[in-house]
Amino acid sequence: MTRFWLGGYGPAMEGTASGIGLLEGDEGAATALSYRGAVTATPSPSWLAPHPTLDVVYAALEGDAAVQAFARTGESALTPLGDPVEAGQYVCHVAVAPSGAYLIASCYGDGRVVRIGIDASGRLVPDAANKAAELRAALLGEPLADTGAPAGTGVAASDPYGADDRASHAHAAAFLPDGRIATTDLGFDLVRIWRVSSSGLVLDHEVVLPLGVGPRHMVVHPSGHLHVVTEYSCEVFTLAAAPDGTWSVVSSVPSSPIAEVGTDFPAELARTRDGQFLYTALRGSNTIAALRVRGGGESLEPVALADSGVDWPRHHLVHEGKLLVAGQRSDTIALLDLDERTGAPLGIRHQAPVPTPTHFLPVR
Q: For residues 219 and 227, is the Cβ–Cβ distance under 8 A?
């Protein structure tokens, strides 16, 4: 049986989801999916992330400025594993470290990037970084700085362009091959590179993208390149690390030659398992754009554009040769066939009603 946990928006975020939902499909090919209802009573769990080794799922409670852990307690049940932990305003993305020792929460509302510890059972440990900072301050005889922020927080960025009418909007995090962390700041056109220390997140350096592009989500390619989709300019930027570890832009392409800036707003960026193709969804025209990865991962080529089958495709996922698409405004999900050779979406195989879906997570 093919199953997916489903994130969604509840009433406080102008949606109808009542918690983390469950999608079930037929065996193997997953040619049809049905919504089985909510398995938790959780306000707007808009993004979900799995623990790498435990049967635990972490949810960004976007309207509540918090993150919560849930343990799987059966084939299709989740139970809260501790109380919600403070993150930041409109926390919209969580990513769990490959070690399972902590997660990174990105907060759209206040620009915070927050590290929250995870213990051996999968529970969130909000004070881990503060305790380490307190110990270090005591040993060095220094006062402990009071930032007024949760433990391990990387504070909001400053605008590299010096504008007075913009705000920091952290949107996503990705773990890089060398152990550092990349985060996007949609408001300030930045990709920020972080190191993790015993006292929290330490900013390593920033990659400044062109003014007004709005970097949103990222994919780490098997080659080590980082692909970044931009919400406002409808582009995909490719970043690479120099021998000294400094990241920079090596190429950029339109997500689609016919994407309309100001009308289309790309959301997620997903790749095939082998890294040959990337897909982004254009909210507005409600299409899926396919891009082929060229060379050693350093460049992309738009190759196809197709109907997403939903209204306002907020998230999509490549699964077993198909593309699952979540329609935030249509209250539906769609399943698209993909051409294995060309990467092009071949058409809509299946659609199903779902309350305000925002994120798919395969059930392991």
A: yes
